[in-house]
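User: Structure please.
Assistant: Input sequence and predicted structure:
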Amino acid sequence: MRTDVVTIDASYVAKLFLEEKDSPEFRRWYRAMQYHDVEFRSPHLLVYELGNTIANEFPDVDESTRSKILENALTGIQLQDTEPDQPL
């Protein structure tokens, strides 16, 4: 069985919890891809990039809530190590 793999960037994952112009469209696409068993991957750097985005966008939210936002955003994304000679 073939599994499609998509390497996903922090700017797109952030659309899962930010209200931006194209967030609803991205969310529909993301859910459709999950339904069709597309595998999402990203370098571990994604965790730090999203953490910074969440801290900047929700400065008045407690740390526990920010952690939950991050955890929910990362659901279904396989984090992987990459080497400089293995560009994504």
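Strands lie at 5-7, 39-43, 77-80.
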